[in-house]
């Protein structure tokens, strides 16, 4: 679905991404791992249109999307979440979801004056969909809670819920497990697996929790110094001497499976 070809992103003399080439297959949950400073988030930002590449090419289902802005990619079904959740804290959880779909009739003054029935029907449809999403994510009991009052893990679930309010084709998750307790992390993992298997979502995720990556991801891609170092199953990555010794630590090799 996504093909990244020889992508570079330079900040002055610093090469944050230095010739990265990789593919994200449709229907996969692809893990992207590596040490801090490896270029993972910068590559995410280039793919998602937050940053233009210095050079290189990104395609989605054969279409060149290099340098397209995030709103254009949003309409093509490419979405991303962030390491730090970006909720609207003064709005309820349900309201956070309802405002996601674009081109709502109530956004124009003309419709607000002359097409109130249409607006009411759209709002009823959005309300129903938001409640279905919250039930899917098992946080429907929080629908009327202010989003700013949620825990870190609940905010990550809310961000995942936003992707369900539109027709997402591929979702880039940036450290969805950061700062999340193990119980909620399992809930997030269950939701990702269900979205992948039941609704055909494609995911690519940056994550440092190798147990979480191992549960969800195949393949796993390792980046280091702006380049792709290795790719394979989690077991292949864990047994790759270069990856273990240089980037993941020798302790990982000898860690007993849970």
UniProtKB/TrEMBL annotation:
Annotated ranges, domain ABC transporter: 2-250
SMART domains given in the database record: AAA (SM00382)
Top-rank EC class of the record's enzyme: hydrolase
Gene3D superfamilies cross-referenced by the UniProt entry: P-loop containing nucleotide triphosphate hydrolases
Single GO term (MF): ATP binding
A cellular component term, taken from the record's GO annotations: plasma membrane
EC identifiers of the protein: 3.6.3.-
Domain of life of the source: Bacteria
Signal listed as a keyword: no
InterPro entries, per database record: AAA+_ATPase, ABC_AA/LPS_Transport, ABC_transporter-like_ATP-bd, ABC_transporter-like_CS, BCA_ABC_TP_C, P-loop_NTPase
Keywords (A to Z) from UniProt: ATP-binding, Hydrolase, Nucleotide-binding, Transport
The protein, known as: Lipopolysaccharide export system ATP-binding protein LptB
């Amino acid at each position: 679905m996504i093909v990244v070809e020889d992508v570079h992103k330079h900040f002055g003399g610093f090469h944050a991404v230095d010739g990265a080439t990789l593919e994200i297959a449709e229907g996969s949950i692809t893990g992207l791992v590596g040490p801090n400073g490896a270029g993972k988030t910068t590559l995410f930002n280039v793919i998602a249109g937050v940053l233009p590449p210095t050079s290189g090419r990104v395609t989605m289902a054969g279409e060149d999307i290099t340098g397209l802005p995030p709103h254009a990619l949003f309409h093509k079904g490419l979405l991303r979440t962030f390491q730090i959740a970006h909720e609207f804290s003064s709005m309820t959880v349900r309201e956070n979801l309802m405002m996601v779909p674009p081109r709502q009739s109530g956004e124009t003054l003309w419709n607000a004056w002359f097409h109130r029935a249409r607006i009411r029907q759209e709002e009823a449809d959005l309300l129903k969909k938001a409640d279905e999403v919250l039930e899917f994510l098992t946080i429907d009991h929080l629908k009327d809670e202010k989003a700013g009052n949620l825990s870190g893990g609940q905010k990550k679930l809310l961000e995942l819920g936003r992707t369900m309010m539109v027709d997402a084709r591929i979702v880039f998750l940036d450290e969805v497990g950061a700062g999340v307790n193990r119980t909620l992390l399992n809930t997030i993992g269950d939701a990702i697996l269900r979205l992948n298997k039941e609704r055909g979502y494609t995911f690519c995720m940056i994550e440092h929790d190798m147990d979480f990556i191992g549960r969800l991801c195949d393949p796993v891609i390792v980046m280091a110094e702006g380049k792709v170092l290795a790719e394979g199953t989690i077991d292949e990555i864990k047994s790759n001497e270069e990856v273990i010794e240089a980037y993941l630590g020798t302790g990982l090799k000898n860690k007993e499976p849970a």
